[in-house]
Predict the structure.
Amino acid sequence: MKQQSKWTLFIGGAIVILGVLVFIVSEKNGYGPAGLSLSSPTDSQLNSIQPATAFIPGSKFSPEGLTVKDTTFVCDSGKADLNGDGQADQVILVGEREDNSPFVQNIQVALQDASTGKFSIISVGESNVGYEPKLFIGRFTGLHNKDILISFATGGSGGVTQYSLLTYKDNQLTSAIPQEILNKGLELDTKCLPDFNLKVTDKNTGYTATIDLHQGKSDYERLGIYNQNGNLLAKDPLVLVDGFGVLNPEMNENGIYQLKGIQRISVGYHANSVANVESTWTVINGQLKLLSENVQPL
């Protein structure tokens, strides 16, 4: 009888420990007991992406009803309700490339309506060539429908990435923000000052910051920009302000995604980065609005 009691206590204790472990793991992953989400309904549930198993990245894309070239491949894909009918539509990011080539041309987004099964396709914009195209689906323009953010690297020395933001409107995919405006970033004036300083000014907002360049003074002396005393020698030193290296989606407290951008500033040559300029943007009534900006010296 005593031995049976010991076994009962042992098994009971093991069950309790197992239950605690399950709760901890579940809570860490955003779920409570019985798999119930602890997040608010305006959080990750509203912006989740299901995999589009019918369109595997790397496979050829030749759906019935669409005319595409034989060199068209699936770059990325997902499933999400874009038109608000409660059914998950197939979202397929496609492009043309030669076998085994990383360079992708004519990047487009194809949409298969879950209700009708019909396909439609739209270009990501005038800039539609690059490397490693990816898509992200979430709510950028409001809580009603989900939007599509596309990114692809340009392959240039500045490490710039191009972006497009598409939305579903009037029964079709369309640009939520003109691609040129989305990728414009901050318009910055730069001026080298005596004693190894760089002044950065936003032309539109008047925001200013000063970057200390002492760390690279030997390079600037070698390049003829400054002398060893910090006197400015060059009349118009080379200062490079890149476009967005990243424009990452970040969810706000209302369940809407904002865009966190980073632009790099270099002096003398591209590899000599001296600061990252961070900016946060949101889409309001079809307009891209700047929320904040900040210069982070490197």
